[in-house]
Design brief:
The complex is a heterodimer of chains A (458) and B (251). Chain A has 458 residues and is of the alpha/beta class. Chain A has 2 domains: 263 residues, Mur-like, catalytic domain (UDP-N-acetylmuramoyl-L-alanine:D-glutamate ligase, 3-Layer(aba) Sandwich), CATH 3.40.1190; 143 residues, Protein-Tyrosine Phosphatase, Chain A. In chain A, the strands form 3 sheets. In chain A, strands 2-3-1-4-5-6-9-10-11 form a 9-stranded mixed sheet, with helices on both faces. The radius of gyration of chain A is 22 Å and the shape is globular. Chain A starts with a helix and ends in a 14-residue tail after the last helix. Chain B is globular. Chain B contains 6 helices and 12 strands. Chain B has a single domain, classed as Rossmann fold (3-Layer(aba) Sandwich), CATH 3.40.50. Chain B starts with a strand and ends in a 5-residue tail after the last helix. With 251 residues, chain B is an alpha/beta fold. The chains are: A alpha/beta (458), B alpha/beta (251). Chains A and B meet through α14 of A and α1, α2, β7 and α6 of B.
Chain lengths: 458, 251
Amino acid sequence: MGARLAVETSVARLVGRLSRAAGRGGGTTLPGKLVWKLDRSALDALASKLPDGVALVSATNGKTTTTAMANAILSPKRRLAWNHSGANLASGVTSTLLAAHDAELGLLEVDEFALPEIMRRTRPKIVSLGNLFRDQLDRYGELEHVAERWREAVAALDPDATIVANADDALVASIAEGRRSVLRFGLDDPDHARAGLQHASDSKYCVRCGHPYAYDAVYVGHLGAYRCPHCGHARPPLDVAAREIAPEALDGIGFSLETPAGSARVRLQVPGLYNVYNALAAASVALALDLELDEVVAGLERFRAAFGRFERFAVGDRSVLLLLIKNPAGGNEVLRTLEDGGVPSTLVVALNDRIADGRDVSWIWDVDFEPLLGRVERILASGERAAELALRFTYAGFPRERTELQPDLERALDRGLELTPPDGELVVLPTYTAMLALRAIATRRGLTRPYWEGERVA
Amino acid sequence: MKIRVGHLYPEYLNIYADRGNIAVFDRRARARGHDLDVQAVTVGIALEPGAHDLLYIGGGQDREQAMIAPDLAARGEAIRGAIEGGAALLAVCGGYQLLGRGYRGRDGSWMPGASLFPHETIAGESRMIGDVLLQSALPEEPAQTIAGFENHAGRTVLDADAAPLGRVVSGYGNDGASGYEGCRVGRALGTYLHGPLLPRNPWLADLLLSWALAHATGSEPAPLEPLPDELEHEAHAVSAARARARGGRAA
């Protein structure tokens, strides 16, 4: 380490400790922000110190969970620098590497927009590209533009680096075309395909000729087994596949994991087809790092839930289940999982519109709440844009008198618990900053641990 | 009464929750005892003269918009004919651009539009993104305000004698310079504002429905009976406050 980096590093670590001591949240990104401001090339130097290099995980949906799953697999074998609290911009990545004194491998979740620069600076050995869905158009812009930036970054990458790519996402799979080392993952169980493309699906036109794809199976959003009837472009063969999928309501989901290293049965302790995709991406990353199949299976089965994505905490004789929603595709999968796993009588939905949530709240109209509305008794619309949310339900035909407007999150939580029968579970669907606020409320009441104390899977 | 709606290219142009606008038309028509019959008008489906009381066109990503632009431009006469015949129309974002004379790309390329609205759009260097508040420029409802969200790189320049939808209170508007937003021709309204537009501006939905009913019945537009719109007004107030606090400024 150069003298300058050494000084920056020690100052930054001190800032992190001071930030935590002052009670200002986790101090997760403050040290990184400082170093990032002083000297961007510090990230290059920090990454190059890791003896086993860096693996990056990006996607619109599932990057936090995929990375947490990869951690569950890898942590018994390697000392990791893992940004487990979701600080996934350059400053957060820098903070994580600063704090990881003796790490061997960087396991880093990266924001879609930040990925090109972080790829350039950390020179990863593995990059996992999970999916691209429309998300926060006010911040990220259009999907094609994000894909174009990824394409350029991948083209500039060391040719020996491995790309883990979702074969079921035509746009993402096309980015990996022509690379020397690629692991393509996807689902292969038409029994669990959806009836068709969801409303407002993305990337449904052929990446080569623009003709609409025909789908042999659609699993999540536009992800599935596609082929172009016009030019013949089709989903590439799968290297890592999930077959014989067996959902278990809200408790978990099982599948056969088929890989170049062999096949094995896996039972995840989190539900939903989207988590099977996350597991395939995590398994592919681990296999690319030469882990054994049984280590992969053990890690996936150990995994419980990532930060705010599927978190339960007990409140007296009731429980609260937090399910993050942040864009139409992710929201739809959460709702479908609820529909399959049991719809609660009371639902709290919390919509904030800060930068991390997306200032443009129009996406809630593209989430398919409709099937749920016929089965839920009462909805508490909460968050800073609660009224907009209540309108979403009203214009979907949900009776106005069964929607309660409660912008204050803590009051909405208490009211929801009041309406939940003893031994029952209150389901809360928050956007990102609403999730952070709800976790803070739970922490204050002693219901869950603060995230900077570690979510590392036992 | 049945209100016949033609939804243009719904599978291509749906980027900003356009189905929210359709849901608002539907619920508010039904609350007054009318039925909304929504038909997709897309590639390969003709726009029959007089077949629709209300046309709707939303926005898409650049790639999707480029896919349908030639098909839409070829419908220019049919769309202008429908509006001259008294049908109502709402165009949002990309649909609003494509119904002008054309779009000038950064590379100088020219994509012709359907020439309903007297404007041209020029690709800009930066996107104009944020909450917007307008003061209505519609003589029918001069006291109303319109709240929404804009996200566009195109600068739309109205002809000197064109009628805008509103005057920009906060935000960028058509081109970030003129101080105006949207355009109106007869019973056709075009705007960059989504959010979606209609749930938080219900009077605008009712105005368009009253025009569509006038077309359907062959009579003069009559105001619709009011609905309890407390939630809509609350959502409008929050959106308007956002625009005042952090909307882009017309430069």
